[in-house]
Amino acid sequence: MTVRAIELDLAVCAVCGQMSREVHDHERHACPRCGSALHLRKPNSIERTWALLVASVLLYIPANLLPVMQTQTLLSRAEPHTILGGVVELWNDGSWYLAAIVFIASVVVPILKISILALLALGVQRRWTSRLYQRAVLYRVVEAVGHWSMLDVYVIAILVALVHFGGLAEVLPGPGIAAFAAVVVMTMLASASFDPRLIFDAGDWP
Amino acid sequence: MSDSEHSSDPLADLPAPIERRQSRFVPSLIWLVPLAAAIAGATLVLTKWRSIGDRIEITFQSAEGLEAGKTQVRYKEVVIGRVIGVGLSEDNARVIAHVELDRRAHGFTASDARYWVVRPRIGLAGVTGLGTLLSGAYIGADAGADKQTQKQFTGLELPPAVLRGSKGRMFSLHSDDLGSLDVGSPVYYRRVQVGRVTGFKLDDDGKGVHLQLFVDAPYDRYVTDATHFWNASGIDLALTASGMKLNTESLATVLAGGVAFQNVDTLNGAGEEAKESASFELFRDRGDALRPPDGPSIVVRMRFNETLRGLTVGSSVDFRGVSVGTITAIDLDYDEKTQTFPANVTAKIYPDRLGSINAHFGTTGDINRDARAVFQVLIDHGFRAQVRLGSLLTQQLYVALAPVPHPATSHFDAQSQPLEIPTAPGSLEEIQQQVSDILAKFDKIPFEQIGTELKDTLHSTNALIRRLDTELAPEAKAMLASAQQAMESASRTLASDSPVEHGLTGTLEELRRAAQSLRGLADYLQRHPDALLRGKGRDQSPPSGDH
C-alpha cells in the first residue's frame, strides 16, 4: 500500500505547485507561496458536482424543447428550430454528416458529460473500489470533450451576427440557446468542481 | 528546522500553510444553482407550453401549399397557429391538416370557426393572396362565436367573403338564375361598392337561386323596405322597339358580374331600414327594378291579320306612348270563314299604368272590371289595337292602342275571357296599302305610248337637223365669204395712208379755220357793233388767235 499525501496531511498548491504540510480538511489554509486556497481535496466536491449536474439536467430540458434559432427570410416567415428538429431536418435533407456533427456536438456530448460525471460522483460516494483506471480515463474524456461542447453556441452567435440582411434574411437567437449555453457552462463547472483524486481515495491502489 | 530533522523526515522541511479564518461555510449554498436552473428552465418551458393552445384537425380537398411545421394559421394576418402535420383521411378522400393553435387565440375552436387555405388567386374581380406567392400558402381563419367547441373542422375551399365581426348586414336575394354572379361579386349602391355576394344556393325545388349578400356598415342603412336589387352583371344590351340600349354598371361588373340596388320612391317615402337577413327579389336589370310596381294584370287577346315579323314576346303594348303591358304569347291560327291565317297575340295589360283613366271610367274599384270598362270606352271611341313599327333601325314592332280614322265596327264583349280587343291594320299595313296604291297609279301611266311618241319626235328632229346641215350650210358659207370681202375693202378704204383719209384731214382743217374766223368776226362785232354800219376801223387790233 503506497503512502498518500492526504495521509501525511500534505497538500500541493493547485496554482504554483508548492507543497505544504499540516494541511487539514476542516481548516482553511492558503498556500504560503502564492496565497491561493489550499485543500487536501476540493471542498464539497461531490456535493457541488451533483448540484451543478442537476442544474444542467434541468436546463437541458428547455434547451431541447425551445427553439435555439429562428430563421426569417423574405420567402418564409419566422421559423423556429429546435436542436433535435434541426438535426432531423438536416438528416432528411440528406446532409448526414452535418446532422451527425450537430447531433454529436449538441446531444451526445452534453449527455455523455453529464452521465460520466454522475457516474464518477456516484462512484466516489459509493466508495467503489474497482475500475479506478477506467474511471480516470472517463474523467479525462470529460475534460477533453468539454472544450468542444460550446460549438452550437458559437455557431449560432456567429450566424446571428452575420446573417442580418434587413428583411431578406435574418437569424434570431431563440431562448433554447441560452439554456443550452447554461447547460454547457454547468457541465464545465461540474467537471471543474469534481476532484478526480477522490476516485482513488476509496480504492486500494497498489 | 534542523538537518537531522531534514534527514529523518524530508517532509518536515515543507512549509506550513497560512492559517485562514474559518469562514462560516454553508455547503448547501451550491444547491441554489440547480434551484435557479430549475426556475429558469421551468419558466422557459412554461412560457412555451402556455403559448401552445388547442390542437385541431382541418380537412381540405387538397394539401397544395400546406407544409408541416411551416404553414401558418392566420387571422387578420396575425399568426395564431401552425400546421404541425398533414395527413390523409381514412378513406383518402380528403387531406387532414393537424394544426396547433396558439393559446392566445380564442374562439378558434368554436364550432362555427372557419378555415380556408389562402393561395394566390387571380379572379376577374382582382388579385388576392399575392403575398402568398413569396411566403407560401397559409391557412386563413375566422373566429367563431359559438360556445360549443370542436376539434375537427372542414376547411372551406374558397375564402369567405365576410369575416365574422365585420360591421354590416346580411341580406338574402331570390332570383331565377345566378346570372354571372359568384361568391365575392361586388354589390353597388350608386356605383359605390358597398358589399359583396357571400354565397348562393339553389332552391330545394331547383326553381330559383337564393343569394346571400353582405352590405358593409355604414352603407347597410341604405337598404330599406323599398330597396330593389338588380343584377348589374355583364353588358345589358337590349334591342327593343325604342332602339338599342346598352347598360353597364362598371367595367369590373361587365367582366365579373355584380349586384346593384337602389331605393324606389314609394308613397311611404324611402321606407324603413331593412332588417338583418331580410329577403329581396333580384330583378333582372335596372329598368325592371326601378319600374313602379305593375300591380295586377288582365289578359287581353288581339287577332291580327298581317305579318308580325318583329313582334316578339316581351314587346310592349303602348297607349299614347305609355307602355301599359307586354306581349306574352303569339300564336298562329286558321280562320275557316275567311280562309286566312291570323295571329292571336296575347298580352298582359297592367291597368295601374293607365293611371287616372281608371278613375274616370272605372267606378267599381275592382281593377279587373274597371279595366274592362275603360276598354269599352276606348273601343267605343274608335281605339283599336294596331301593330306599328317601333324603330326603322331595328324593325321591331309593338302593339299600339290608337284611334283609327274609320274603324270597322266590330263586336266587343267587355266580359270575354280573355278580353278580346278588336284590331285594325297597322301602320305597316297602311304603308303597304299606300305603296300599292302608288304603284297602281304608276301602272295607269301609258308609258308605251309616251315612248312611241317620243321616238317619232326624235325622228323628225333628226330629219330637220339633217336638212339644215345639207341645205343651209353651203349658203351660209358663201355669205360669210362675201361678208369677209366687204370687210376687207372697208378696212382698205379706212387705212391711214389712203387718199380718202388724207382729203378728209384737209377738209377738217379748213373747217376748223372757218370756224375760227367766224368766232373772230363775232367777237369783233360784239365789241364794235357799229362796224356793221361803218366798217372796220384801221387801228383795231386783229382778233386773238395764232393764225
Overview of the molecule:
With 206 residues, chain A is mainly alpha-helical. Chain A has two domains: 1-40, no CATH class; 44-202, no CATH class. Chain A has helices spanning 45-65, 83-93, 96-126, 132-146, 151-162, 175-193, 197-202; strands at 11-12, 19-20, 28-30, 37-38, 69-73, 79-81, 169-173. In chain A, the strands form three sheets. In chain A, strands 6-5-7 form a three-stranded antiparallel β-sheet. In chain A, strands 1-2 form a two-stranded antiparallel sheet. In chain A, a hairpin with a 6-residue loop joins β3 and β4. In chain A, α2 runs antiparallel to α3 and α3 (96-126) packs across α4 (132-146). The termini of chain A are close together. The mean pLDDT of chain A is 82. Chain B is an alpha/beta fold and 547 residues long. Chain B folds into four domains: 50-154, no CATH class; 168-290, no CATH class; 298-440, no CATH class; 500-534. Chain B has eleven helices and 26 strands. Chain B has helices spanning 3-8, 32-51, 132-135, 251-256, 286-290, 356-361, 367-380, 427-444, 447-493, 499-527, 531-534, and strands at residues 18-20, 52-60, 72-75, 78-88, 95-102, 114-118, 121-123, 126-128, 138-142, 152-154, 168-175, 186-189, 192-202, 209-216, 227-231, 236-240, 243-247, 259-263, 279-283, 298-304, 316-319, 322-332, 343-349, 383-389, 397-403, 419-421. In chain B, strands 6-9-3-4-5-2-10 form a seven-stranded mixed β-sheet. Chain B has a seven-stranded mixed β-barrel with strand order 11-14-13-12-18-15-19. In chain B, strands 24-25-21-22-23-20-26 form a seven-stranded mixed β-sheet, covered by helices on one side. The N and C termini of chain B lie far apart (196 Å). β3 of chain A pairs antiparallel with β1 (18-20) of chain B, so a sheet runs across the interface.
